[in-house]
Amino acid sequence: MALAAPYRVMAAKAFPGAGPAPVFGGGALTPLGAGFSNAAIAHLREIDDAHRAAMLHPGVISMAPVLALASNTTLTQRQAIASMVAGYEVSLRLGEALGTGHAALFHATATAGSVGAAAASAMALGLSGSQLHHALGIAATQSAGLWQLVDDDAHESKSLHPGFAVRNGMMAAWSAQAGLPGARAFFTGRRGLYALLGGEGSMSAISEDSGGTDRINTATIKAWPSCAQIFTPLDAMRALMDEHGFKADEIEAIDVTIFPHALKIAGVYWPVKASETAFSLRYVLAALLINGRLGINEMESPDLANPALVALGEKIRVSTSDEFQKAFPERRPAEVIVTLKTGQSHAARRELRRGDPEDPFNWDQLCERMRAFAPAMSDEAAARIIQWCAGFADPALDKELCVPESALFGA
Question: How confident is the model at residue 207 (pLDDT cuts 50, 70, 90)?
């Protein structure tokens, strides 16, 4: 990934000095530097997990700080699991409570994610309940992440959001560990996050008992290397291609109807650079049709001036439906109608995405997905990562130290 290099360089300058924590792509930094760098790099390909109601990426802000801290502590695998789960639960519950109004203006991975990263970090550091509360309050004061960057074509900087969220969360946990207090009513107070950041969701997300509704089990694993807001049209198009077998040059027109919120984030008409491909509905559909697939190469090394690709993109008409919006965010309705030059038309509608909790990947499919999304990875490296991840499901290894090997980070 070309964009990974500047993130590594920046992290080394911002958090100077060698450290024990490995960084994606090679080298090692201090835990803070590695947490920031790895969170940012892990988000670059738009393949990290997502969540329908919270509208954020919980894994990157929950795992990056824990793995960075694990390199410098005696964290066991069971403690690492508990810390990551804490990051998921806090970020997802806050994001769900903030709701769609917030998510239309703010990147919730940066806002609710900062507090989730603080929870994960505080648990990894073994803070008391009182200290953890202070850590959440301190992190909340640093919650920020404007979607204006999308409007201003600054997509390359989107990965700063999870990077800064992890930095802020780790700093908040260390601050609380040092005895500094945080806002107690950081979310519900009259000048808390809910009031100030456009919250409009149900407060029940943070007040209800967690039994039976653990949010980590409701996350979505992405099936496509693009913005998750436009997955249902991709799923619908793939189904039509598989069922009817038509080719790109047989198509007269494509009509896509989608929920309006999707285009607030993925509203690029046609990309002019690789970083915009994940946010262009016309591009991802055209690339899928032209190439028969939508993989990393189509997103990172796109042939944006390809006449056939551009011509097909111009045949794609996108409209929104207020009725579809009513189902959002629990459903992401989209309808795709493909009209062929013969006059035939084929339609498909999807409300859920492949990888949603109702349509999950199994373990073997997850392993295949990892290989597809990291095509340059060697078989040896893939086997090592799979073995390391599988170890977290083995209770016999609960008390083993969680010390991430540098090889897991592509060193």
Answer: confident
